Amino acid sequence: AKLLLLFTCLFFVCLLGFLVQARTMRRFLRPGHDPVRERLKRELFQFNKTVEHGFPHQPSALGYSPFLHLMAIGTRSGAIKLYGAPGVEFVGLHEENNTVMQIHFIPDQCQLVTLLDDNSLHLWSLKQHSGASELWEDHRFTLKGPPGSPPSAAQITAVLPHSSREVLYLGTESGNIFVVELPSFGVLEDRTITSEAVLRWIPEDYCNRRSCELVEALQEHPKNPDQILIGYSRGLIVLWDRTSLSISFQQLENLSWQRDGSKFISCHYDGSYTQWPVSNDNRQSLPLENLVPYGPFPCKAISKIYWQTTRNGLPYIIFQGGMPRASYGDRHSISVIHGSQQIAFDFTSRVIDFFIIFSSEPTAEFDDPSAMVVLAEEELIVIDLKSAGWPAVHPPYLASLHCSAITCSHHVSNIPLKLWERIISAGSKQNVHFSNMPWPIDGGTNIAPDPPQRDLLLTGHEDGTVRFWDASGVCLHLLYKLSTVRVFLTDADPNDNMNTMGEDEWPPLRKVGTFDPYSDDPRLGIQKIYLCKYSGYLAVAGTAGQVLVMELNDEGAEHVVDHVEADLLQDQEGYRWKGHEKLKTRDGPVQFEAGFQPFVLVQCQPPAVVTSLALHSEWKLVAFGTSHGFGLFDHQQKRLVFVKCTLHPSDQLALEGPLSRVKSLKKSLRQSFRRIRRSRVSSRKRRGGGGNTSEVRGILQEMELAPVQRKIEARSAEDSFTGFVRTLYFADTFLRDSSRHCPSLWAGTNGGTVYAFCLRVPPAERRMDEPVRAEQAKEIQLMHRAPVVSILVLDGRNIPLPEPLEVAHDLSKSPDMQGSHQLLVVSEEQFKVFTLPKVSSKLKLKLTALEGCRVRKVMVANFGSCKTDDYNENDLAVLTNLGDIQIISLPFLKLQIRYPCIRKEDVSGIASCVFTKYGQGFYLISPSEFERFSLSTKWLVEPRCVVDVPEVSSNNHTHSRSVMENASRKSR
Amino acid sequence: MKRSSAGTFQDFYSLLQSVHQIPRVDVLLGYTDVHGDLLPINNDDNYHKALSSANPLLRVIIQKKAESDAGVFASNSLQRKKKGLLRPAHYRAKPHLLIGMPQDFRQISSIIDVDILPETHRRVRLHKHGSDKPMGFYIRDGVSVRVAPQGVEKVPGIFISRLVKGGLAESTGLLAVSDEILEVNGIDVAGKSLDQVTDMMVANSHNLIITVKPANQRNNVIRSSKASGSSGVSTDSTPSQQTPSPASQYLSNYSTAESDEEGDLVIESDGAPHYGPVGCPNGGPADGPLPPSLSPHSSQGSLQSLGSHDGSPGRGSVREDGTLLTL
């Protein structure tokens, strides 16, 4: 027997040698040289950033073309975005990344001009290319003043694209107005309107008193293109072709013409506006009316004003600002006055700019405004001016994703029509206060194919709401908003209405918009969402350990929410939770509106943030985890099945809660400041005493140049937050033996531990009678102790197990229960496949050890070939902490392809990323915008649209052109 | 036995002999310490050390003196221990010259691949054992000066910034502050950020092989001198006994592979519902009580329980055999 043993040993040694050799050889084999696979990869994978959803971050300028019915928004980072009918959108980016100050569409053209804060002008065009329109930058130009003039001479303050489409008037800080040709931006020097020329012309008693100062406004006469109304900031207004002169004694803010050109209106720094007649007798005209609408006390400036005529004779006077300085000076308002009606719309953030949509037919006699479009810093508001009460219009795009900060997101692909309709119906009941007006900005035609399926993106917010977005196509728009606040008692009374305003309130303010970044209670924040699209069950978990299970109800209802506590510490003693308290619940029945209504609340104790959540709608179970442990709840019987503490006894941080961490950080900061101060003091002393200055310099240098260092230390069980539950997973698989499969729950922790529980769920007919049972079957400690980010079971054909109820709804093949199942554990550092039921390692892919990056997000995605319809495969889509996206094959864990996607410094972008089931994804590029990307050649949602130049009555333009030519000849 | 009145090693030795009714048989006593190493009990000191590590049970391994050889108490892993225990007595070909008690020492580092590296570089392998000693070093960004065809150029590099007193890195004597790190487990760190290199090192911390360019180039291995073989000229306490030239690369590969495949610890809890007040599973088996179901009726089973309770998760796991067969 001993001899045999010896031989066996020898055999193993030989085998070992062979394997080592094989492995070394494989190391030298270059991967990825199978031409068939390489071709298939090209047919399957492709990386595109397709569209940006949401509201542009830091908008800085607004423009509108009444001719194209397109709106343009510029941002502080130099982007311009054009929007028309839903689905029609374009994005351009100025290379300089400078703030866009002004946007002006060229009349009757698919062109626009932008002015950046570096004083450069850019001409953009919409050009058709292979059937779709694209936005291109044609020219750029920086105005240069006459030689020897100060730089302010060429600083552009006002831009007027002339209706002739051939020239731009550029008002400058020096008061000179330059005329440049389009599209070449050649300066027509002979047409420059210098401030000297203007001053020469005006009566002397005025020109002595005031210089022109900068050009505040330039407006073309609506009927006579030869006449340009020039407003200088000190209050001088000139109708240039030297016909009329108006002088106000208030600093000018803006100008606006009346449609017939007989009057214009000016608005001023002191909160007043003035109407002026236009006289043609070369004389100074006197104001018709001068009004301070919110006087008599000092008012803020009116920065922009419109005078819109209507058929019934009563004009709309619409102006921005002008609020009484002392009491309402902090409001961001736009007032609309129409006869006796007056409302001061009170916006949630600073108004960047606004425009009025009115009848653009040149032949129409009146403006007849239909809508007002307001770009505020954080949202876009459109007011219907035709319907009584001037309600807001529900925007189909540019949604303010961040009206309360986004705390998590969850994507559900391919929503069944039934659920879709129910969600829409619940949402429509919430939107009754919106106007029925069709979206007024309707330029261009969307020619993108209809989205292949209905997709929902759910975002959880800091204020305890969950928003349901239609993410099927290019326009991300809100379908329904769910609030969990009603379940809890908070300081704010949900019934208190912000808009209760007496009839005789003055000014007649009305709050509009949804942006509200201030959360009543941060504990309400939503951290995890799980929606079952087949059953309509929704689980939502929050910051204070609250887990709500909800059901979709088409009617409003009043009911009691059951309340169950889950003590995750169990009998552990001597621990003190220093974090926040749990939320107080409302006693008695609560009224819920139609939609998702909570029926049970599971409250984790300690009320730490819920870090993982899983719902199995077929078994009617919900699993939840925090930094202390995890639990399983039977929502059918409303009974807690079990809880499991995952804490390490030495993990004080996890026990004390988030507050103590902040405290200790503060403390250490304070200490380090003290240390720096001490050493500064001592070094100063030494210098004062005439000590060794080079030594002092050395110390200072060391202090300043103290390099960033990183500690190299193996992870140990004693590290902090090892018990933090990162992922939970339900699977029907072979946990105990290879002959019987059973429901199971898997949990993975930050310390690299995986727990597997065998579940016994009673059959449907006895589901209410017998309890659900659970037994721990396995515990796996990953040697490398890296946090477990995902757990997955592959069936006998290496296909991930279907979602609950997917098979029951005939949307997926039943899993293969014949072949042996495999367990895939994804940690931040490695991918590992184990056999089941005996958990032995089968293969692995080490990511961190080889590349130094870690897994941040991972999801199974199905990729279809763009060439052959019937081929598709499942792969892992992985986002790393470096912002790279990798696709890794299943089940062999081979890296397929890698794309750089997010900057590695963009931590919040990486943290916000969600993948869809079909190889697309979303991540936040700003608090208010999702970038959508696609890894698939087949599933691509991107804007594709055409903007055609509408037919124009050409007579009108030939006329104006000839007039123009006359004018230029005249000026020569 | 009472912990307070443990007595001397001799008392314990006779106690065992009488308990097992082997009064005249010479035996060797051993125990596994918290790191999974099989250590001897042969004097009062290590006897008390062994008792102090009992928690609360002490697993004592008794072996007939004739059957064992000095290799029993090898450092490193239970994998070797297994072989050692099973090794037949006549395996020992020549009489063993026992000089000291090498079993009381364990290898903590080695210089490897001397023959294939430039003389200015040094490849150091750090053996991490449990958590008794911290790795104990820090790294930082820095500027490395390279000689290029165009002349001297400056490129970003990663350097050791600090050694912790008493840490593993310092105790090897092979690493020093300002040494430039060139590779981590065979992967070039050029172009990688400090955080990436940190992650790579931590991910490899159970078997970290770093190639450095020492700041102090005076202690480099002089390859032409045949005296020292592959082990470097250094004050290293444990010169490695590896065979030089081609095989050494193999060996290093092999050893990487070996510890590479360190198994994950799997605890099967058949039948007994383990949820409930079981204490903290992360507490490390060394702290936890022994589960009642420790019947070593199958070698597999006993190995598992050993693996789970010797405090060295990963070593001696279920997949001892699978390790080498599956890749």
Automatic annotation (TrEMBL), chain A:
Localization per record: Cytoplasm
Matches recorded under Pfam families: LLGL (PF08366), WD40 (PF00400)
InterPro entries per UniProt: Lethal2_giant, LLGL2, WD40/YVTN_repeat-like_dom_sf, WD40_repeat_dom_sf, WD40_rpt
N-terminal signal peptide: none
WD repeats: 93-134, 452-470
Keywords, sorted A to Z: Cell cycle, Cell division, Cytoplasm, Exocytosis, Phosphoprotein, Repeat, WD repeat
Primary residence: cytoplasm
An example molecular function term from Gene Ontology annotations: GTPase activator activity
Record GO cellular component, one term: cortical actin cytoskeleton
UniProt domain Lethal giant larvae homologue: residue ranges: 292-391
GO annotation, biological process: cell division; cortical actin cytoskeleton organization; establishment of spindle orientation; exocytosis; Golgi to plasma membrane transport; regulation of establishment or maintenance of cell polarity; regulation of Notch signaling pathway
Function field: Part of a complex with GPSM2/LGN, PRKCI/aPKC and PARD6B/Par-6, which may ensure the correct organization and orientation of bipolar spindles for normal cell division. This complex plays roles in the initial phase of the establishment of epithelial cell polarity.
Record text on subunit structure and interactions: Interacts with GPSM2/LGN, PRKCI/aPKC and PARD6B/Par-6. The complex is enhanced during mitosis. Interacts with DCAF1.
Family (UniProt): Belongs to the WD repeat L(2)GL family.
UniProt-listed PANTHER family: LETHAL 2 GIANT LARVAE PROTEIN, LLGL SCRIBBLE CELL POLARITY COMPLEX COMPONENT 2
Protein's name in the database: LLGL scribble cell polarity complex component 2
Lineage: Eukaryota, Metazoa, Chordata, Craniata, Vertebrata
From TrEMBL, chain B:
PB1 domain residues: 1-65
Residue ranges, compositional bias (Low complexity): 224-249, 295-311
UniProt-annotated stretches for the region Disordered: 224-327
Ranges of Basic and acidic residues composition bias in the record: 317-327
Domain of life: Eukaryota
GO cellular component: apical plasma membrane; cell cortex; nucleus
SUPFAM superfamilies listed in its UniProt record: CAD & PB1 domains (SSF54277), PDZ domain-like (SSF50156)
BP terms from Gene Ontology: centrosome cycle; establishment or maintenance of cell polarity; regulation of cellular localization
Domain named PDZ: residues: 123-216
Biased segments, Acidic residues type: 258-267
Protein name per the record: Par-6 family cell polarity regulator alpha
Species of origin: Chrysolophus pictus
